[in-house]
Description:
Rossmann fold; 2 domains; globular; two-stranded antiparallel sheet; 4-stranded parallel sheet
Amino acid sequence: LAEDGGLFVPENIPIIDEKFLTSLLDLSYQERAKKILSLYLTDFTAEEINQCVDNAYTTEKFDTDKIVPTVEVEKNNYLLELWHGPTSAFKDMALQLLPQFISTSLKKLGDKDELVILVATSGDTGKAALDGFKNVDQTKILVFYPQEGVSKIQRLQMLTQQGNNVSVFAVKGNFDDAQSGVKQIFSDSKYNEYLNEKGFKLSSANSINWGRLLPQIVYYFSAYADLVNDKKITMGDKVNFTVPTGNFGDILAGFYAKCMGLPVNRLICASNSNNVLTDFLKTG
């Protein structure tokens, strides 16, 4: 979170052309990720980006070589399968890569402080973040979930998480209470100063962190390349993305992909009873 209450995001969005899109067609998911990430991570070397991606998207962690397959459901309708990661949540796409970014950044900066990752979760983010950050050097991760607001399996996934740097807390209230509490900690400047003196810095693995959004941009490009490869569309054709989204992070990554020049016609925001975002878009 920035001091003005907004998010830290890049000053400039890189713009791609058809030549760049065409260059993705014959590549693996990992290679596509490296090309797209390098447009943003200009202070990382190619070797560092390669290492981050190769550590995150392995066939030991993901149960398909494709990492993210694009599958035809019916004519003109396709599904991007984002559940092949270690926790079966789409959050794995970002939360296997974010710890690699953070670890690399700490080394580049020569920063000796410990990074404390605070996470508010309604279920799947918590487990995916715990799995991504477990035993990562120089980090601790604290996950807060609403006591009655996650499924039994999600609660068990989190409470049985192994790792020497992980902690999980139940919060009395709903997800918004948990998230508000985390945001309050981030914006408490005195508390942050105190932590700094003790050698700790705070960060987040929620989608308020650009490092969470950036890896998610990749799979929009990858899906498009798959559709061209499968001759379902012609290069340059516009597609619609329908995104089930609770907290806007997933579809925001799609918006960035569109801003970069990916041929997107419409981004359709779908929600269930967790419809705070829908209400916001309808009413402001």
